[in-house]
Amino acid sequence: MPQRRSVIVTGGASGLGKIMSSHFASLGDSVTIFDVNAADGEAVAAELDAAQKKAQAQANANGGGVRFEKCDVSSWTEQKAAFKAVYEAIGRVDVVMANAGIAEHGRSWIVPSREEDEGELDKEPALKVLDVNLEWGSVKLAQYYMRRNTPDPTTGFRGSIICTASNVGLYPFPPAPLYAASKHAVVGLVRSLGPIYGMSHVGIRINALAPAVLGYALRNYTYKPLKTATNIAGTDALFNNMILTPDSTLVKGVEKLLNNVELNGQVLEIHGDNVTVRPPHDVIDADSRHNLAEFVRFRYGQ
Fold first, then answer.
1. Domain-by-domain residue ranges, the chain?
2. Which sequence positions are flagged as catalytic?
3. Which InterPro entries does this one have (predicted)?
């Protein structure tokens, strides 16, 4: 019987994260859901664990089980403890879906209304959206534990990190410029780390998904204040006339990144029924092309 993968899904109790958690659980993998919402996290983990056990019993097989770890990914201390708990319980980390994210609710502090001008500088900017959405802690901890895996004898890789960006990390998004900035940052992080993590002594692939508006998100997300938010879309009229992308396209993108070992440092746009690899911008001139090639050649620590 093939070894069950140890999969961590941050923000795995709702929205896109729940789609991912459900998919990996259906494959029989050992899934650990990280979420700041303990009630939802425990309920979803129990639901998926029961479904996995039932399916595996019918197939006369053994699943890896579904667990929950309460974790605010903006807290290094909490996330470090959650990763350690997974490693101690399962003995390895193979796939990390760095998915947790929150919205930028209300008018951005970057562009205040006229009424806000008077006391604008007395209010400290709310930057939680950047702390959560950049996912640097999940990436850092993922590579730490994945480097302890034995490389796959065929591919040479030790694990796979998949970050959730967004198509607003590829396009302008005036309603929420800080949210857009956070998702642009995820794209930059993944493209910059790909050449480093792909080095033979590291042996980790890192890629990103850039979903459009998925039907699951709008059916299941509800608005919460920013300080406790784990959901994105809300009930804003902004989404009333959106063209929805099927949930199945997200799963298709996940599987493409896991199965195609040639993909590293790449961004997959998830739109309609399509999964499209989105290359970086064209290089403007020969001088920039030379310098960028030097950066890639230099990589890190060489």
1. 6-298
2. 179, 183
3. NAD(P)-bd_dom_sf, Sc_DH/Rdtase_CS, SDR_fam
